[in-house]
Amino acid sequence: MSRIFQKITFLGCLFATISLGGCTQDKNGDRLIFSIEDDIKLGAQVSHEVDSTYLAKGQLLDPTNPKNKVAYDHLNRIVNKILNSGRVSYRTEFTWDTKIIKDDNVLNAFATPGGHIYVYSGLIKYLDNEDQFAGVLGHEIAHADQRHSTKQLQRQYGLTLLLSVALGDNPGTLTQIATSLTTLKFDRDAEREADDYSVVYLSGTNYYACNGAAGFFEKIIKENQQGRTPEFLSTHPDPGNRVEAINKKATSEGCRTQFSGATTYQDFKNSLN
Question: Which residues form the signal peptide (predicted)?
Fold first, then answer.
């Protein structure tokens, strides 16, 4: 957490202690007025709005549609390995549903508060193997699990306005938040922490290379050098430094860095054609 945000949080909690009776510490050690229950309510509202937006565009792959079963079977198998790593703080509290947005031109993924994860088909098809994809998923899961999404939205919109959205009292702002999630920019501390937790989560799977996210960023660097700039860089900057930091974290954790050798990722990609 950045020093500025720590000061804001401290002052907010001090105010809450005086006027509202308290500010609770969450499982990550953060003291926030915005509760886990508020995260869940806000996430449900935002997720419903995101679903509606992409359904209207014909881009949201319906998980209940039999023709999408193969794709979601692949996706849920990978997600569940990460969620069941024993390292996700809010494994049982958050919803942790994952949706695929069909747009092969977008290399991106994002998370809402409360554990709703969205992945573009373009990102899935862009990656070379399951370990890279698991690394990116771990990063996005960390944004929700470490409550980065909530903290960033609270900075942008303010506590009162965000609470009104969570309660369903502000549809205009809800639409604005849902639209902005694809371009939501986290500070360097949050990005670094999400990278670290991606390593931690994958380490707990005892299956994936814990530095899988580094392989993704290495691919992005290569693409960028060839004059192609993936959209992911607009919200996840400095890939070079992050490769080094992710590998350093993997070394400090002492976790496996050999690829899992999973052989079904191409089948996953093919299921989206």
Answer: none
CA nearest to 138, candidates 92, 87, 103: 87
Asked whether 141 and 121 are in contact (CB, 8 A), the reply is no
CA atoms within 13 A on the CB side of 151: 25
CA dist 101 and 123 (Å) reads: 10
Report pLDDT digits (tens) over 212-251: 999 998 988 887 765 555 555 655 556 668 999 999 999 9
Question: Strand locations in the chain, DSSP E?
Answer: 24-25, 31-32, 60-61, 97-101, 109-112, 116-120
pTM for the model stands at 0.86
Tokens of 193: 């922490």
With vertex at residue 185, the alpha carbon angle to CA 226 and CA 79, rounded to the nearest 5 degrees, is 80
Q: What does the DSSP assignment read for 172-221?
A: HHHHHHHHHGGG----HHHHHHHHHHHHHHHHHHTSS-TTHHHHHHHHHH
List, as one string, the DSSP characters of 17-37: HHHTS--EE-TTS-EESS-HH
Nearest to 138 by CA among 100, 113, 111: 111
Lookup: tokens for 209: 């290379």
Per-residue buried b or exposed e for 180-211, using 16+ beta carbons within 10 Å of the residue's own CB: ebbebebbeebbbbbbbbbbbbbbbbebbbbb
Residues 245-266: pLDDT tens digits?
Answer: 999 999 999 999 999 999 999 9
Is residue 123 within 8 A of residue 109, CB to CB? The reply is yes
